[in-house]
Each structure stands twice: as structure tokens, then as C-alpha cells.
Amino acid sequence: MNELAEHWFKLQNWQPYAFQKDSWDQMAKGKSGLLNAPTGFGKTMAIWFGVLEHYYLKVEPKLTDNRKAKKLHCLWITPLRALSREIHQATNAVSDDLGIDYTIGLRTGDTLATERKKQKTKPPNALITTPESVHIMLATKGYSEYFAELSVIVVDEWHELMGSKRGVLIELALSRLKALNPKLIIWGISATIGNLKQAKAILLGTMNAGVLVRAELDKKIDIHTILPDSLEKFPWAGHMGLTLAEKVLPLIQQGSSTLLFTNTRAQAEIWYQRLLDIAPDLAGVMALHHGSLSQDLRNWVENALHEGILKIVVCTSSLDLGVDFRPVDTVIQVGSPKGIARFLQRAGRSGHQPGALSTIYFLPTHSLEIMEGASLKYAVAKGMVEDRIPFIRSFDVLIQYLTTLAVSEGFDADVIFKEVIKTHCFESINRQEFDDCLLLIYKGGKTLDAYDEFHKVKIIDGLYKVTDKKIALRHVMSIGTIVNDAMMQVKFLNGKYLGSIEEWFISRLKPGDTFWFSGRSLELIMVKYMQVIVRSSNKKRGRIPSWMGGRLPISANLGAAIRHTFKEIHYKSVESKTPEVKFLMPLFKEQSRLSYLPKENELLIEYVHTKYGYHLFVYPFEGKLVHEGMAAVLAYRLSKIKKSTFSIATNEYGIELLSDEKIAVAEMSLEDLFSTKELYRDIQEGINTMEMARRQFREIAGISGLVFKGYPGKQIKTKHLQANSGLFFSVFEDYDRDNLLLRQAYDEVFIFQLEIVRMNAAFQRIEAHKKVLQTLQHLTPFSFPLFTESFREKYSNEDWLSRIEKIKQQLEEL
Amino acid sequence: MTISIRGTEIQLLSQKAIYLVQYKILVIADMHLGKLLHFRKKGIFAPSISINEDLETMQSLIEEYKPDEVVFLGDLFHSELNSDSDYFLKKIALFPHIRFTLTKGNHDIIPEEFFNNAQIDIIQERILEDKITLRHQLPVNLEPDSFYIIGHVHPGYVVQRKARQTFRLPCFYQSGNVFILPAFGRFTGLFIPEFSEEGINYVIINNEVIHIAK
To answer: What's an example of a GO molecular-function annotation for this chain (chain A) (predicted)?
Structure first.
């Protein structure tokens, strides 16, 4: 038993959980491992007392009087500044309670330069920090001395980091720190994901087996679907959600604090406005929280939540992670959560006592989405939690890392190559590819020109080094993997900062225009450099900004759960149906009456002629991402039979191909249309992968250091170095096709954008299905949401709301 | 394509330049010479391209239209001098009988001495008949009866195709008494102007210039 923990738990009058004791024991044995535990059950303490015990048993006794100067003992890495702050507070409280001299520092992007300097000259025992800050430390001279006695590394919320390039930053940092101290103890903390074992292997490395500690806590989740009073038989996305706002009010009243999750920041703004409209008394006890709001504002909301001042917070994934808000007892999810893990995580934001019930309300935004309520229950019961797919071969991050090491102490290529290929991300790269990366930073690529002025990294005494101070500074400023769009800061006249909005939205506004942001109505006064100066407005109506990249596709697991729910529709007895399916039966009957209701092993295809053209609807239920790729393949195959142009719309359930002319469905066998034969070729031919790769290249160019965003507050100085990534993309396409980063852009498109693996699996599944083709003169309940999707895009400037209503009325009269 | 402004015939060339027929002036805007090399010099690994295609295009334009004068509408060089300027000097030395003029742009930070040695005139603006004015960007105080031919903006046009395909193309842009040339340099970005009521785009698609009005 861990003595410090025993003492401290007694002080708190708490009983440790089995998983906590288990973690302490494993850490006492010097083992590394992964702890799988939900938020709010003391996972921090499960690891922290292991850290403390290690220090007081193994390190402190060996300290002699003349070497009392502290060295860094533990590094605790979290994905969020807010979480870092919370851990900093909690661990400091332990040191205070126990009266021990173990000191803990906090280092994030917010930490002042003076504080950082102090942390460098007089290190604390432990440092709570972020992946980016660790790399900034690796870019500092003397880092190997600084980390020389580092014994423990803890990576918090590893499941979250693992599926992003920030995970690659961690892998690379660990490869270096392990080389400095081969005995380094590494612990990860992760929520439940499908591939926990892989998560452990990636973090610890293949050489280090480690242990997996799982908190077997019985966490009950109660899922309620909020059903509308009447069923729309012709559903369309986004319409129904807000009308259900009234049903949310009693839930807010009955609970002590409610979190209402939306999928996009724009949706959060809309919901905030709507709730304020229908329940003005919420003013003062309702707050808004999303990723584009200023840190100050978010901190305020988080603190107010802690203190139980707020009744409801409308939020996005910005509140998915980490920090634990005890007063929260009700969670509402607006729209599809798109994934089971995310849904569970959000559900877990309420009901923190062991054995307590987590209650989550699912509020569908259109009729068909009601089905997802049933699918979510099924998926949760079956534990169908998604895998997190780690990035591999991220050359952009490798190039950034190599430059980081060159900026600080310089590196020996052979040494670093051996370290890097021990990571999961780079285990498959060969020396040639590694050397190509070196060549990029050393000579600017495979240049044939003898007289060249490229200058970044030099070789000095066998070490790759950056000697130019400006280059070093530019690099340190751009460490990290999160590449944002050009963001404009929204400020009041008095300078108070509200948050940031993408440039393209502001470019559509004129001074005097009103828009909604951070839950306020604001009037644009002027735009100055990258600042948007506003004042409060009392106008009720205003445009609401939307942010790019907010749309998440449904995960493969949730897709499978939805297809399973579909089976239920065909159950003979009413009792065996879930309430959601029961509620939707009139819609399915209508579908069956107007067209056909597919069974689980059937694929429905509807070919409809309306005054807007010829529509081909297909319903694979595979999620939007896969549908987008699939639609392009179908369009390509059809246009090979007969030359034609299609407009494509997709949603989570299906695909629409729209053409001015007849579509050649009759001329082609449906088996061929959905065949897996030559699928890969047709994907490449049919999809404009170059355009997709061009977009993907933006992030890669930012991470690898091709595009420099400028020093904060110094827009002008770097003007001559600014270029957009699209320009570089074109230049590489024309002059350097084999460029590693260019190839990486295409690889990422195939893996992440087109989800080639899922698409292939979907075609295989469909190949075996019976295809049912219905030729119709009218739309159906299934096709209507897809139709409105494309309709909205085409008529975005017109009053499409009333037009859709008109079309719907016509259908209901059929 | 040829348009007429205040009786002056202007040929819009798909090579992203214009030719003023009466004056025998070839106008080229925003060449941004040496841009990629400048990036490389600062440690950004843009590909190194030794042959400058822009200068080849300029040469063939001069050979085809045989102008008396070539006016660069500013931003001739992207930044400081680098080896790309040698190529440039060699090219203009091929045409000793042609007058070269630069209306100074915001990127042009190279000392005037360089241009004097190369016998390139540096001026703020060049005013032709009927107050048709060639300069890099609009002056702070617009002369109401002037017609401005400028560069600086790098205008582009977005073609929206079905199935969510978009293409960004360089264009000439005219609105009121302002005519803007596309950037001549290959390694330049595009700015998409808001479509105003009176705005006219002359979009460059491959070897053609196509007129698109709202």
C-alpha cells in the first residue's frame, strides 16, 4: 500500500478504489502502463501517488546536501490548458494537505515568459504541460540536462491525443526522452476506446510491455430520446431540432446544472439565442462555451459551472474533455453525436458518484434521426466503442521535430533515425525517406542547382544545427500541429476580447451589420488588420457565423448500429420494437406506400423525375464521408455509360445524384454499378483527389514549416514570406511530384477523407445485397432530406424555407 | 479579346498581360520575381526552380507584339535581389531598343540604383491621353475623371461547377473607372473580389479570355 496515499485518503475520509491501489502497486514495481478509467473517479490520484512514492522512495533519499538543487522528476502532459490547470490545482492541494516539499509547476501557452524562465533555472519536481510545450522545451538549449533525471511521464486523455497529429508529437517526444533515460516510467490515462491495447502499445513502445489497469466501475447510462409531438413524414435536416427547444426547458428546470451539447459552434450560437428567446428568465444562469470564444470567457464559464452558478451551458466538443463539473446532472445531446465514444463521454459528464446514473437526453434534429436514439442504446449496450486510428508516416511532424532538435542542441542523424523508427508512427519509414526529410531542411529538397541560396539547417561537427536566430525564432513560434484558418479577433471598442471568427465570414459583412457571436447581438463598427471592432446591438436578428470543418461524419460503429435498428422495422410484433422505431412507423409505412422499405440485406435505389431534374437516390447508411466518395464513384461509372454531369448531395443515410438529363440506370446492371471490381481505379478516376489533396496540404504545409503565419502582432514584417499553401501545392505538383509531403497529402486524403478502408468494406457489403430499384414520379420520406440538402445549396440566397414547405405540402397530398 | 476604354484599344492577353495598341505599350503587373528563391533563402523549402518560365513568357510576348515600351505595374521583384534578377537583366538586355518602365509597387524595395543601371525608368504613375493612368495601386485620393489601370490586387474568379467542384482562375477585373490586371508571376496567389453590380470579369481559361458579367 502506498503510504502517502493511505494518509491522504484518510484525511479526506475517502476509500481508494481497487484500480487506484492497483496503479500504485504497479508503479511501485517500476512498471509502465495504461490506466483506463472514466473522468471523475480519481484517475489523477491513481497515478499521482505513484509519482510521489517514486520520488520519496527512490529519488529523495539519494539527494545529498550539496546537491539539493531540484531536477525535474515528472512530466504530466494533457491535451487541454483547462485540464492542466485543474491537475495543477489538485496536485498542489495534495502537497499542501500532506505538508510535503514536492513542487508542481504549470506550463502552457498562457504561462508568462518570466515564469518559464524560473521553471528553467529552478525546475519544480513536476511540470504539468501540453504536447506543444514539451516540444518547445526540446527546442531549448540545455534540454538534455534539464530532462536528465526525469523519471515519470504521464499522458492524460491519451485516447484523445492518439487520433491526432498531437499524438505523433507525444510519440516523438517520448522517443527522445526515453533515449535520455531508458528507465523512464510511462503512464497513459485513457477513456474507453475500441483499441485500448494498441493505445498502450503505441504510448509505451513495443519494447515495453507494461500493464493495462482498468477501472471496472459500474457506470449506468440512461438514454432518453426526446420525441416531437407529431411526426414529420417528410423530414429534413435541422428543421425539427429547434422546435423541440420547448421540451428542453423542463429538463433544465428539474436538474441542478445542464450541459446541452451541439455538434457545431454555429449550432451552439443558434441554440443559445433560441433558448433565451423562449425563456428570457434564463439570462444570467445560461452560458455559451465553444472553441472560438476567448479563453477568459471560457474560463469564466468553467468556474461558474464548478460553483454551480449556472443552470445551463450550451456547448460543443469544447466541454467533452477532462475537467469535471460536479454540479452537472443533466446532459442533452442535440443532433447525432456521430460516434458512440463521443456519446458516452458526453453522457459521463453527469452523475459522478460511483454507481450513480448518468442520464443523457438525445434530441434529434430531423425525423429519421430519431432512429439513432434506438441505435445508440443498442450500441451502448453492446459496448460498440470506436477505435482511435493513430496517424502513421506523418512526415510533416517529423520535419518539424527534426528542426526543433536542430534549433536547440543539434542532432546526429544516425542516432535520431534509430530513435524515430522505434515509434509506431514512423516504424515503417526507411532510411531513404528519413534522409529525404533531412534533405528538405538541410538543402531545401533535391536541388540540382549548385548555386542555391537555401539556408535553414547546417551541419556543424556532424550535428544538424540551426544557427540563424530568425529562423530559430520562426520555428519555435510555429511548433505544434493545430493549423487554424485565418482567424479574426472580435473585440469591443474598449479592447475586451470576445473570441475569433474566420475571415471569410467577416468579409461578407459591412460596418453597421449585425451578427450573433458569443451569445450576443453585435454591430460591426470596423475591421482593422486582423481585428473586428464591434459594439453591443439590441437588434434581435443577425447573421450567425459558421466555422469551417465543423461537420463530423458518423462513425463506422454507429453506422452499423443504425443498420441494425433498421432490422427492427420489419419485426412483426410491436412490443419488440424500441419506442423510437414505434414512433417512426408511420414514416416507414409512408415510405413503403410511396416506394419500398428495404430489409437489412437489401439496398434501395430510387430513380425519381421531378421538375428539378432526374434524381438517383441510394441508401447505404454508411455515413456522410463514405457516401461522398461512393457518390463520386457511382457518378463516374454512370457517366462512362452516358456522358453526363451530376450534382451530388449526401447525408448520413444516403446519396443523391441529380442530373438535367436522364440517368443511365436502365442501361447498366445494378450489379456492375455497385461492384468492387476496379473500385480503386474508379475512385482515383472519379474523384478529384487533387483538389482534396490541395486542401489537405494546408495542414501539412503549416506543420512542416512551409507556410509561416507570422509573429503575433507583427503582421507587416513577414509579408514577403507569406504565401498560401495552395501555391506551394501547385509548385510541387509541377516540379517535384515525388515530394514526401505531397505524397503524404494524397495518403491522408485516401485514409482520412475518403476512408478508403470503410468505403471498400461498404462496397463489399452492398455487393452481396439485393438491389431494389424503384422508378418514381415523386419524392419519398427517405429521399426528401437528401433533396432538401441539395436544394438548400442551390438556392442558398433565396427564401428556400417557404419553398421547401410548399414542396412538402404537395407530397403530403399524394 | 480587345476592349476599348476612352477610345483606347486594349488587348487582353491570356498570358496575363495587356497591350495598348495605339501606344505600343505592353503592360505587365505583379511579376514577383525571385519569390521562391526569397523563400528558400529564408529557410522555407520551396522547390528550387532554375528556369524562370515567367521571363520566357515575357520574352515571347515582346517578340510577338513588338512594343516600343514595356510598363511593369509594380511588384516586379518580390523582395531583395537574388539570382533571379540576373535572368531578368539578361532578358531585357535582349531588347535594347525597347523602353522599360516600372511604376513602383509596395514590394519593390530594391535600391533605385539597380534600375538605373539596368536603364529601367522608375516612376509613380504614367498618365496617357484622356487621363488613363497606369500605376501599381489606387492613389489615396482618386481623381474623379481619371481612369486607372492597376495591378496589386491579383484578381481571381471562382467557377462553381456542379458536384461541388470549384476552379480558381486568374482574371482581369473592371469596375467603374478602375481596371485591374491579374498578377503575371506564376507563384502568386489570387484574391477573389466581391462581385459588384457594375463589375466585369475577363476570366483566363487556358489560352482564352472570356467575358463574364453578373
So the answer is: ATP hydrolysis activity
